[in-house]
Design a protein that fits this description.
The chain has nine helices and seven strands; from the N terminus they run H-H-E-H-E-H-E-H-H-E-H-E-H-E-E-H. The chain is of the alpha/beta class. The chain has one domain.
Length: 257
């Protein structure tokens, strides 16, 4: 192996380890601050503070990846989400463990629905302060999600329910949660299409397996979909799934291989 390639690989490993170290230190710091602020603040002030802390830590991390040359990010279209008036369900496909990091960094006001074990992770303590919603209890999750949408907030919910499996051509079959919430709350669903040149942090990716850098990740925001008055949640789910497949299978430099 040429000496330049060896040096490049070593540098990438060092930067990757530095990134993990950042998550460990900043995550625990936000957990501590979240506990203190959760005691001092309540209600909307606490949630806003938690969301600010999380989004800023995400922005700094993304900035580090971009400056170090590890990441090429095309996320300009995410700004469209902030311009949507009123409540909406923001529903991306889910290619990697850190998809929400990029979205929340751009749109800090989003209320995230996430796995309970992630929400309770000590390295993401600010998530509880931010009012993010765990999905371990479906009934409680729906109740809290409806409450957020009724309050004209925007909800981030991955339509697939989990990361896209290795053997899935475009996406996993969609879960029914997005359609049920869209009907119950009478809000639009905004699909977001995530593409990448890598399977880094996909389902089953070993935590310390180095990908080929730079990572190239792109976000595209689709048109809002409304569930029709005479449309079943199953039919809406199939219509939404067709939208994802049509978009993700169209020609693009980062089309899933």
């Amino acid at each position: 192996m040429p000496i330049n390639s060896i040096c490049k690989s070593i540098l990438e490993w060092l930067l990757l380890i530095l990134g993990f170290f950042y998550w460990a230190v900043i995550g625990l710091l936000i957990t501590f601050l979240g506990a203190v602020l959760g005691f001092l603040l309540s209600g909307k002030n606490a949630r806003n503070c938690g969301r600010f802390l999380i989004s800023q830590s995400f922005k700094f991390f993304i900035g580090f990846l971009r400056i170090s040359g590890l990441l090429i990010l095309d996320d300009i279209e995410l700004k469209k989400i902030s311009k949507i008036e009123g409540a909406a369900i923001i529903a991306p496909n889910h290619i990697a463990l850190w998809d929400a990091v990029f979205i929340v960094a751009s749109i800090p006001e989003l209320v995230c629905v996430m796995k309970a074990e992630i929400l309770r992770n000590p390295f993401l303590g600010g998530a509880q302060l931010a009012g993010y919603i765990p999905n371990d209890s479906i009934s409680i999750m729906f109740k809290r999600a409806i409450h957020c949408l009724d309050a004209q907030e925007k909800l981030l919910l991955f339509s697939e329910g989990t990361r896209t499996k290795k053997d899935a051509k475009w996406i996993n079959p969609l879960k029914g949660g997005v359609a049920l919430l869209a009907r119950k709350a009478r809000v639009p669903v905004v699909p977001v299409f995530i593409r990448s040149n890598t399977r880094f942090f996909e389902k089953g990716w070993p935590l310390f397996k180095k990908p080929d850098f730079p990572l190239h990740i792109s976000f595209t925001v689709g048109d809002a979909l409304y569930i029709k008055s005479n449309e079943s949640t199953h039919a809406f789910n199939m219509r939404l799934e067709d939208v994802y497949i049509t978009a993700l299978s169209s020609p693009h430099p980062l089309i899933r291989s």
